[in-house]
Amino acid sequence: MYGLLISLTACQSPDNAQAEQTSRQETTVTADTTKREPRPKPEYYNFKGVERKRVYICMESTEDTFHQQHDCPVLITCKGQFRNLILARAIEDFDRYNCETCSADLGYIFDETYAPY
Ligand SMILES: [Zn+2]
After folding, report:
1. So where are the chain's domains?
2. How many CA atoms are closer than 13 Å to the CA of 5, on its beta-carbon side?
3. Is the pLDDT of residue 30 over 70?
4. How far is the C-alpha of 109 from the C-alpha of 37, rounded, in Å?
5. What is the pLDDT of residues 62-87, one digit of tens each?
């Protein structure tokens, strides 16, 4: 009886260890993908006509967008300070892109193929 118990335990433990390791790996992968990195400075932009527009930016190192609405759901999650400045400065001095939530209509600023004239 004693010998049977030992062999049962020996059979089960490798499976348990493997399952535990697998779930730990998945957790690590999820953490990596949720980590946010700001995009590099925009390579192309043309804000002609809207350069004096007032926008808001969040002064967090992980943020790379500007907002037209002060109550934008994305801007509200800002944990640092935010600033109100003109669009030209937001792009040229702070390397910001348009927020997809409140400023999707300004996406053309960074679209090289957009030619209104
Ligand atoms: Zn926004």
Report:
1. 1-35, 54-110
2. 2
3. no
4. 22
5. 999 999 999 999 999 999 999 999 99
Strands 65-67 and 97-98, bridge-based pairing: parallel
Between the CA of 73 and the centroid of ligand 1 the distance, in Å, is 7
Instruction: Show the 3-state SS of the chain.
Output: CHHHHHHHHHHHHHHHHHHHHHHHHHHHHHHHHHCCCCCCCCCCCCCCCCCCCEEEEECCCCCCEEECCCCCHHHHCCCCCEEEEEHHHHHHCCCCEECCCCCHHHHHHHCCCCCCC
94 alpha carbon to ligand 1 midpoint, in Å? 16
pLDDT category, 32, cuts 50, 70, 90? very low
- What spacing in Å lies between the alpha carbon of 8 and ligand 1's midpoint? 59
Question: What is the pTM assigned to this prediction?
Answer: 0.68
- Tokens (6 digits) for 27: 């957790």
pLDDT: which is higher, 114 or 36 = 114
